[in-house]
Amino acid sequence: MTRRLPPLYALRAFEAAARHCSFTRAADELAITQSAVSRHIRSLEDYFACRLFERRGRAVHLTEPASLLLPGVHEGFESLERACATLLVEDGTLRLKAPSTLTMRWLLARLSLFRARHAGLEVQLTSAWMDLDRVDFLHEPFDCAVLLSAGTFSNEWHSVRLFEEWLIPVCAPAVLGEQPWNVSRLQQAELVHPTPDRRDWRRWLQAMGLTDQVSLKGGQVFDTLELGIVAAARGYGVSIGDLAMVAEDVLLGHLALPWSTAVSSGESYYLVWPKARRGQERFGRLAEFLLAEVAAMQLPEVELRR
């Protein structure tokens, strides 16, 4: 069946002009002249036999018919972009998004080794601060991502669980001292919070049954796990760290564990990527490599508590 549609370039001009409420900004986005945008809009108005924009002073506004047309046109172009994105990838490059602390403390060194072993496959890593780990493969320029999550993902994604997050208090060796830590010492310690909502300390204290005994008020507050760990290493207090993220510094003596119990946060790090993306074998190679690195990790000997 032949579909009767107006020209796509005219619809594209309409969508851009409607989104920006400006013919000038639409022309800049589409790399055409403003008069070309105007011609495309007029052709659509002739096609639909109605006005799509009205001018009020120097601004343009959507008419009622245009407001009805815009959602479907916008959704249509997003669907086209999503379909085209599955083919517009470089087979020799993976664009990876990952949380900043994971990047600095675990992923960066391992990706350097991955590149050395897979000379024909480049990984372009973007480290991002994410209060809630997420990725939008439609609107962000990434092929895959490592996310901290409970494991509920889109049915359109593949996911590989790398390792679980275990929360544990960390401090500088000088802060640790020679005496064993107990509730009294923890009550007197300066707590370092790696998140403004103090959720990591709250999770650990709750699992340890210490919620009513240790106050979460006061203390230094940061917005990344990395900053909390660095503050603890420099002697500014006791922070909560991820066991895997602090393992190397603990083994090297740069950090100490005042409490030898790690608590599960209920979340894990996952490598995720779209099922529809071309070159699936590339993702498989990266997943296989990272899983081997996880298996080779040396973690401090601590009690693990869920």
UniProtKB/TrEMBL annotation:
Pfam family, one: HTH_1
Residue span, HTH lysR-type domain: 6-63
Protein name: LysR family transcriptional regulator
Cited Gene3D superfamilies: Periplasmic binding protein-like II (3.40.190.10), Winged helix-like DNA-binding domain superfamily/Winged helix DNA-binding domain (1.10.10.10)
Species: Phytopseudomonas seleniipraecipitans
Family: Belongs to the LysR transcriptional regulatory family.
This protein's UniProt keywords: DNA-binding, Transcription, Transcription regulation
